[in-house]
């Protein structure tokens, strides 16, 4: 697999080295000439002195030949521009982008050419909630317009003791894909009865479906906060 990594900071270098060691062909793009000179003797892959936000420099890097582009700079606006150029100008099949400021996460979607956005605070929050939450809906993973969510049924859940086919009102845009009961994973069918304490994995494929899933398994709905209108600048330090 051919991968271009934009940004040779600590994150970008680690990704590039990890992918190279896994046998992939990696090219690193970095606009800081001093950093490029420092890294050239240390990294065993191709490093280009290039501003990845400029189309002509991406052409020189032959971005159209890449299977994946990783926008890993420390600037969210740069990562959005890189992602958009990679997808629209060079038709790169998969674009992965780093989110530096978590409040900008909502921007990193297919409109900007992003197939997968990675925000460390969001990942940590999901892992913590997965470990401690009972009776709460936790988003585990997001890909395209689909999300994998998990809920551990509390005692008194409106879904406890019911067959999956009898859950109401269950959204058409969601599918129960697994039920974890103790140490066992149950492949769900329509007649599978879910119980209090079960971890239920649901694939949600619509922006409007998560609240409906909460209503089915928890019995309450929550209002999501309104989106911000522009990228937020990371705080100093």
Give a topology summary:
Blueprint (H helix, E strand, L loop, with lengths): L1 E5 L3 H12 L3 E6 L2 H7 L6 E4 L5 H6 L7 E4 L4 H13 L5 E5 L17 E3 L1 H13 L4 E7 L2 E7 L21 E8 L2 E3 L12 E6 L4 H9 L20
Instruction: Report the CATH C-level class of the largest domain.
Output: Alpha Beta
What is the chain-wise order of helices and strands?
A: EHEHEHEHEEHEEEEEH
Helix content: 25-40%
- Amino- and carboxy-terminal Cα gap: 36 Å
Order of strands, main sheet, comes to: 3-2-1-4-5-6
Number of strands: 11
What share of the residues does DSSP label as strand, in percent? 15-25%
Any idea what the radius of gyration is?
21 Å
Largest sheet: 6 strands, parallel
Please identify which CATH superfamily of the largest domain we are dealing with: NAD(P)-binding Rossmann-like Domain
Low-confidence stretches: 221-228
- Count of domains: 2
The secondary-structure class comes to: alpha/beta
CATH architecture of the largest domain, by name, is: 3-Layer(aba) Sandwich
CATH-assigned fold name of the largest domain: Rossmann fold
Mean pLDDT: 86
Number of helices: 6
Shape assignment: elongated
Q: What are the defining features of this structure?
A:
237 residues, alpha/beta, Rossmann fold, Alpha-Beta Plaits, 6-stranded parallel sheet, 6 helices, 11 strands
Brief summary of the model shown:
The protein contains six helices and eleven strands. By secondary structure, the protein is an alpha/beta fold. About 3% of the residues have low confidence.
């Amino acid at each position: 697999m051919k991968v271009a990594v934009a940004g040779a900071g600590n994150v970008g270098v680690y990704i590039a080295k990890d992918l190279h060691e896994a046998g992939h062909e990696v090219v690193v793009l970095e606009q800081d000439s001093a950093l490029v000179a420092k890294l050239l003797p240390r990294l065993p892959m191709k490093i280009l002195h290039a501003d990845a936000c400029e189309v002509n420099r991406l052409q020189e890097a032959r971005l159209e030949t890449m299977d994946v582009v990783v926008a890993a700079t420390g600037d969210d606006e740069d990562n959005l521009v890189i992602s958009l150029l990679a997808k629209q100008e060079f038709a790169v099949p998969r674009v992965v982008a780093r989110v530096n400021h978590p409040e900008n996460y909502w921007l990193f979607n297919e409109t900007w050419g992003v197939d997968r956005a990675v925000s460390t605070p969001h990942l940590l929050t999901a892992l913590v909630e997965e470990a401690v939450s009972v009776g709460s809906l936790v988003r585990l993973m997001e890909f395209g317009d689909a999300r994998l969510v998990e809920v551990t049924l509390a005692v008194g859940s409106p879904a406890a003791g019911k067959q999956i086919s009898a859950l109401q009102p269950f959204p058409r845009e969601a599918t129960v894909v697994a039920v974890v009961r103790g140490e066992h994973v149950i492949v769900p069918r329509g007649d599978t009865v879910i119980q209090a304490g079960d971890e239920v994995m649901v694939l949600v494929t619509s922006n409007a479906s998560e609240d409906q899933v909460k209503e089915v398994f928890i019995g309450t709905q929550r209002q999501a906060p309104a989106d911000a209108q522009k990228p937020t600048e990371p705080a100093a330090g």
